[in-house]
Design goal:
By secondary structure, the chain is α/β, with parallel strands linked by helices. 48% of the residues lie in helices and 20% in strands.
Length: 136
Amino acid sequence: MITSRVIIVDDEEDARELIKFHLKSFCWVEVVGEATNGVDAIAAIDAIKPDVVLLDIQMPEVNGLEVVERISHRPNIIFITAYDEYAVKAFELHAVDYLLKPFSPERLAEAMKRTSDQIKQGLLMHERYLHLIKDL
């Protein structure tokens, strides 16, 4: 199985720790970074280039939606927030999933599986593309 590199972005330490705890049950997930605000999240995402970002919306300085609009690197985004009113905007920004706090471990597992499926599909498409251009 392919390892997914993950960054967790949340201004609440307890929330980041809970997410990390739940992610330990996925042998194919590696947490490669954390950020506590939107400005640091933008820098971390563009520098580390993770496969997945678990992203809170309500944060100091720059909110999670603005983070997605400002990053150059395009990882799979799972929003994790206590507010349901941003869901439409999140999916307009091509979020893979939108989890409402408090979420269950099963709900996080569902979101991570969906993300894993997206990554696999992207890799298959890339392989097909490489095969096609090789034959030209």
